[in-house]
Specification:
Arylsulfatase, C-terminal domain, 25% strand, alpha+beta, Arylamine N-acetyltransferase, acyltransferase, acetyltransferase activity, transferase, Papain-like_cys_pep_sf, single chain
Length: 322
């Protein structure tokens, strides 16, 4: 299936993320995929603000609606996992990675970003899978997982360790049956499990799992998105989240991830040295809207700002922030 975006839209997107269209190689390469990925995650944040700061309190996964919100509006808007991944999927196919497809992901529940329990959720996330000409393996790229997400395209190679841009954090894939899987006999499929550790002396922690040979379609996206944006038991419906990776320049002159800022409810943290520091605890909506503008580059309209009133995520003062 062809990309939903026209050449003019792709040129606009590339300009928006700071990767001029004239730098696009005649054939897609791993180096270009890496730069495209880096520019995407340092230009378009992960955020679930449309659930809370919009008149409809709903998410549209229509590719044109995603482009309008995250690129054409030029208001620094991002989206949550499915929004960012679907936008990027159409970009990938338009710039030459024609076999890029989306696979559903099971995640582990998290408390303040830290996974807990052994079991994984149902399908609540998406990851892009694609091939690179001349490479013998497929790659996974995830532009919508948040602060502990990958910052490099990852080949689907079991146990291969990658440095994850900040501090001593490392990431890898392993092939495992997750605890939820009961059938493990002949023909059963292990899952690719994304793991993170914050130093070589630390234990590996599993964050999410997926199959690379099972494509999800638009109908699947819609089912996942309805649950994550509307179900009261899903944390997305009552907690505001925003994560923006900060861009720097590497020794090779190319863009690199140089840090990240994170907002969870009213708490803002920053990591530029490998260590996370508290920046601010927002107690009112006015404070949070200002932080989103100043630290995340996200500019909400007046209509969006007032639409959070009366919602579970609304900040109402010191007692609510505590």
């Amino acid at each position: 299936m062809a990309s939903a975006y026209t050449p003019a839209q792709i040129a606009s997107y590339l300009t928006y993320i700071g990767l001029p269209p004239d730098t696009h190689p005649p054939a897609p390469t791993l180096a270009y995929l890496t730069q495209l990925f880096t520019h995407q995650i340092t230009s378009i944040p992960y955020d679930n603000l449309s659930i809370h700061y919009s008149p409809s309190h709903s998410i549209s996964l229509d590719p044109q609606a995603l482009f309008s919100k995250m690129v054409a509006s030029a208001r620094g808007r991002g989206g949550y996992c499915m929004e960012n991944s679907i936008l990027f999927n159409h970009v990938l196919r338009a710039v030459g990675f024609e076999d890029a497809y989306l696979s559903g992901v099971r995640i582990r529940p998290r408390d303040d970003g830290v996974p807990y329990g052994e079991r994984f959720t149902g399908w609540q996330h998406l990851v892009n899978i694609l091939s690179v000409p001349g490479e013998s393996v497929k790659y996974a790229v995830d532009v919508g997982f948040g602060g502990d997400g990958m910052t490099v395209p990852m080949p689907l190679v079991e146990g291969l360790v990658h440095y994850n841009s900040l501090g001593t954090q490392e990431i890898r894939f392993v092939r495992e049956f997750i605890p939820n899987q009961r059938f493990r006999g002949e023909g059963a499929h292990k899952m690719w499990v994304y793991q993170v550790r914050n130093g070589k002396e630390k234990e590996w922690v599993s964050f999410f799992a997926f199959h690379d040979n099972f494509e999800f379609t638009e109908e699947d996206f819609g089912n996942i998105s309805w649950y994550t944006s509307q179900a009261p038991e899903c944390h997305q419906t009552w907690r505001t989240l925003a994560i923006r990776f900060l861009r720097g320049v590497g020794e090779d002159g190319r863009a690199k991830v140089a840090g990240k800022v994170m907002l969870m409810a009213g708490v803002v943290k920053r990591n530029v040295t490998g260590k996370t520091e508290l920046v601010k605890v927002c107690q009112t909506e006015e404070e949070r809207v200002e932080v989103l503008r100043e630290l995340f580059g996200i500019r909400l309209t007046d209509e969006e700002v007032v639409s959070v009133k009366g919602r579970p995520a609304e900040l109402k003062g010191p007692a609510a922030a505590a």
